[in-house]
Write a structure and sequence with these properties.
Blueprint: H1 2-12, H2 20-68
Helix pairs in contact: 1-2
Protein backbone atom coordinates (compact mmCIF):
# COMPACT_ATOMS: atom_id res chain seq x y z
CA UNK A 1 0.00 0.00 0.00
CA UNK A 2 2.82 2.35 0.85
CA UNK A 3 4.24 1.78 -2.63
CA UNK A 4 0.99 2.94 -4.25
CA UNK A 5 0.92 6.06 -2.07
CA UNK A 6 4.47 6.88 -3.09
CA UNK A 7 3.59 6.30 -6.74
CA UNK A 8 0.60 8.64 -6.47
CA UNK A 9 2.75 11.32 -4.83
CA UNK A 10 5.35 10.96 -7.58
CA UNK A 11 2.64 11.35 -10.24
CA UNK A 12 1.44 14.58 -8.64
CA UNK A 13 4.92 15.91 -7.89
CA UNK A 14 5.38 19.48 -9.10
CA UNK A 15 2.70 19.13 -11.76
CA UNK A 16 5.29 18.09 -14.34
CA UNK A 17 4.86 15.39 -16.94
CA UNK A 18 6.67 12.15 -16.34
CA UNK A 19 9.21 10.81 -18.76
CA UNK A 20 8.45 7.49 -20.41
CA UNK A 21 11.03 5.69 -18.26
CA UNK A 22 9.56 7.12 -15.05
CA UNK A 23 6.07 6.25 -16.25
CA UNK A 24 7.07 2.65 -17.02
CA UNK A 25 8.75 2.32 -13.62
CA UNK A 26 5.62 3.61 -11.88
CA UNK A 27 3.37 1.31 -13.88
CA UNK A 28 5.60 -1.65 -13.03
CA UNK A 29 5.56 -0.66 -9.37
CA UNK A 30 1.77 -0.41 -9.39
CA UNK A 31 1.47 -3.83 -11.06
CA UNK A 32 3.82 -5.36 -8.48
CA UNK A 33 1.89 -3.82 -5.60
CA UNK A 34 -1.43 -5.05 -7.01
CA UNK A 35 0.01 -8.55 -7.39
CA UNK A 36 1.35 -8.47 -3.83
CA UNK A 37 -2.04 -7.28 -2.60
CA UNK A 38 -3.76 -10.20 -4.36
CA UNK A 39 -1.33 -12.69 -2.81
CA UNK A 40 -1.84 -11.21 0.67
CA UNK A 41 -5.62 -11.18 0.22
CA UNK A 42 -5.58 -14.84 -0.78
CA UNK A 43 -3.38 -15.70 2.20
CA UNK A 44 -5.71 -13.76 4.50
CA UNK A 45 -8.71 -15.71 3.20
CA UNK A 46 -6.93 -19.02 3.71
CA UNK A 47 -5.90 -18.07 7.24
CA UNK A 48 -9.44 -16.97 8.07
CA UNK A 49 -10.75 -20.33 6.87
CA UNK A 50 -8.19 -22.16 9.00
CA UNK A 51 -9.12 -20.02 12.01
CA UNK A 52 -12.80 -20.91 11.56
CA UNK A 53 -11.94 -24.62 11.43
CA UNK A 54 -9.75 -24.43 14.54
CA UNK A 55 -12.43 -22.51 16.44
CA UNK A 56 -15.03 -25.14 15.51
CA UNK A 57 -12.66 -27.89 16.69
CA UNK A 58 -12.08 -26.06 19.96
CA UNK A 59 -15.81 -25.75 20.59
CA UNK A 60 -16.30 -29.45 19.86
CA UNK A 61 -13.49 -30.35 22.29
CA UNK A 62 -14.91 -28.09 24.99
CA UNK A 63 -18.28 -29.81 24.63
CA UNK A 64 -16.60 -33.22 24.91
CA UNK A 65 -14.70 -32.08 28.01
CA UNK A 66 -17.93 -30.83 29.57
CA UNK A 67 -19.53 -34.27 29.08
CA UNK A 68 -16.53 -35.99 30.68
CA UNK A 69 -16.70 -33.98 33.89
CA UNK A 70 -18.24 -35.95 36.76
CA UNK A 71 -20.52 -33.13 37.89
CA UNK A 72 -21.59 -30.62 35.32
CA UNK A 73 -21.18 -27.35 37.14
Amino acid sequence: MLGLVLCAKMLLCCGRRLGSLERRDLQASIRNQKERNMVLSRLNSELNQELQEVMEQRIALEIQMEHLRPYHS
